[in-house]
Specification:
The chain is mostly helical. Helices cover 62% and strands 5% of the residues. It has two domains: 22-161 and 175-241 and 254-423, no CATH class; 433-571, 2-Layer Sandwich (Transcription Regulator spoIIAA), CATH 3.30.750. The protein has helices spanning 8-11, 15-19, 22-29, 33-60, 65-82, 97-128, 140-163, 175-184, 191-210, 216-231, 238-242, 259-291, 297-313, 323-331, 338-353, 363-377, 380-389, 391-406, 409-431, 475-485, 507-522, 534-542, 556-566; strands at residues 90-91, 320-321, 433-436, 464-470, 494-501, 526-530, 551-553. It has a five-stranded mixed sheet, sandwiched between helices. The chain is elongated, with a radius of gyration of 32 Å. The model is unreliable at 1-10, 439-447, 449-459 and 570-578 (pLDDT under 50).
Length: 578
Amino acid sequence: MTTQTFSSQSARPSFAELYTPKLVTVLREGYTFGHFRADVMAGLTVAIVALPLSMAIAIGSNASPAQGLYTSIVGGFFVSLLGGSRFQMGGPAGAFIVLVAATVQQHGTDGLILATIIAGFMLMAIGYLRLGTYIKFIPYPVTIGFTAGIALTIFSGEITHLFGLSFSGTEPGPLTQKIPFLWEHLPTFSPATLALSVASIVALVVLRMVRPRWPGMLIVVALAAVVTAVLKLPVETIGTQFGGIPRSLPLPALPAVSLEKLQAVLPNAVSFTLLGAIESLLSAVVADSMTGRRHRSNCELVGQGVANIMSGLFGGICVTGTVARTATNVRAGAHGPISGMMHSVFLLLFILVAAPLASYIPLAVLAAVLAVVCWNMVERHAFATLLKASHGDAAVLLATLGITLFRGLTEAIIVGFALGSVLFIHRMSQTTAVEANLPLVGEDTPDDGSRGSYDERAQQDPSVVVYRISGAFFFGAASSIGAVLERIGEGHRNLVVDFTAVPFVDSTGAQTIENLARKAAGRNVGVYLTGTSANVKRELAAHGIRPPLVHLAPTIERALAEIHKREPALAAPAPTEG
């Protein structure tokens, strides 16, 4: 029989395997006309969904509707061309509305474009450093909390358009200032705008319930535009607010760049990068769960980075993978990334042919679209489940939600991740335990099946104490375990510590054992470590925990037998009375 050994080095994928775009993979598999036809139909379906949504998200972000379309056309094309997911659809996302709006308010449109380009380079760096794998470690309560917070913040920003409020000056950004401001100007609402908003929301909900496969958003936006034009409703439209949208793509251009500007927008770019990586990879995971495929996370981040750079050069805003459009792409029968590229082509045809029609679209109906999107973003069942699951998960969830609403998204993710990590450490430390004065059980017998040559009375001898550690011996549990292990009575001459149930030891755990061994050596107490795996033994040896400081044995039984050999008195028969 031939034994084959595979090392971790040989199993590690090559650079080409990690960063080959899924488009290349699909073409290598064999791409037929039937596949192309499926991708064209899926791309058209997603374009119909993306058309009103891209404009609505851009307007909600204090950008122009044209910028939203540029983002979907240019950014979406490069996400599909270079990304690591077969079905990912790129474009502007609702999760970015808060960040983009704040960036525009602080640094203007040029600052937004510069931050988008910088974020693109950062995403590429994260991908090439192979850090995309670690995005999955964001705790679930954090994602649910900041998603709910984003949804509430977006909705608060759309109240002005939903009610048609009129005021002079700029609407405040922070929620604590925005709510009193909107309440103060609530009497200025427009009845026609409010009626159109309510009717649009009702129509969107009814269409989703009755005809879920129909492009409800596009239908409602088109009907609202027709009603507004025919009845000459006194409501704000894309035409009155923005003068319509251009009928072609702009030429690529760099924004004004200076060292001061770079320093000013860098925090915004970091926020774009962090949220973009999370959103994109979560969307790719959703596509994987729907199709059984597997995306390349680091390649996806590199593709997202290039897409953001190109979007910024063409005047667009932040690009990321979008869950709703990606799921629509999968359900529409897409075969591969060409569907995403075709979605961009169809949107480009729209602005080339039908751009003047966009001038009639009311801002109220686009605000209604975002209101429905916000409702769908809040995962209500998951939110309720986490509140009931445990006090720790509820605390992480509510803290992330509160910080998102009242401080900012970046702080919310950082604090939520920190709280989630502390909660995990606490739970892991509770699973690590130490047992004392163990009876010798069957699993402690040597591997060769022999019973050994020791006297079982030695286990009851007060000069020998036996401990077994179970669970991960890491910094979170080291203090409590160390306190137990160091309770060596004056009469103990030998200490046996069993590591059979320890999967790994970190440097803090190893340091705890080293301190224990040196303290025991100073008191002439022998320390025996049993059941150490290769990894645990390697970590302990790196900290100097090796003979003669300690004795190593495969099992407790072997350790006791060795103690008997070293100290024959323990093996002597017990004296009889009389």
